[in-house]
Amino acid sequence: MNKSLHRSWWMELLKGLIATALAVIIFMNPADALVAIATYIGALAIIAGIVLIIIALSRRRKFWQFLFGQGIIYSIIGLVIVAYPKVTAGLLIVLMGLFIVILGIIQLSAYIHLREVMPAPPLTLATAIISILVGILLLFNPFEGAVLATVIIGVYAVLYGVTRLYVAWSLVTGKGKKEKGIEFEDIVDD
Known about the structure:
Layout: H1 2-7, H2 9-28, H3 30-59, H4 64-83, H5 85-114, H6 122-140, H7 142-173, E1 178-179, E2 182-183, H8 184-187
Antiparallel strand pairs: 1-2
Helix pairs in contact: 2-3, 2-7, 3-4, 3-5, 3-7, 4-5, 5-6, 5-7, 6-7
């Protein structure tokens, strides 16, 4: 297994480079990256819908109509997303904003009712207020909120990319082969 890990360094390098490139693209223009992500999700929905339709028609077993209907719905949703990626990205953010506002109201209600029964930490109140404010921001300015969400995805892509690059470097150089007294052979069997 150790040799297999050592030989797969290039896969880790490739994953790291792709994630880092994605992060650079996102940071260069988060708004366009959001539209690209929405288009990608729409394309995946179309593909999933077509696959479900093919499976339903080829098998025609019990409940095949359910799979067929699901495939049609996925395909239609995917086509709408691909045709109007900015609108669908904004709509998704509005729904997220509504959910976050409702969650904040529930947290605030819990804080008010539970502080008489047991000590409620002030952090619960702060979280509730922040949730309501973030939700309202997303509701009334969905595209800017979506851009912020895209930047967060970019930060994650940087962290993931750097981690994968480090793993690739460790595999090539043999560094990190033995950390804290644990060998790779101790973790996995050959």
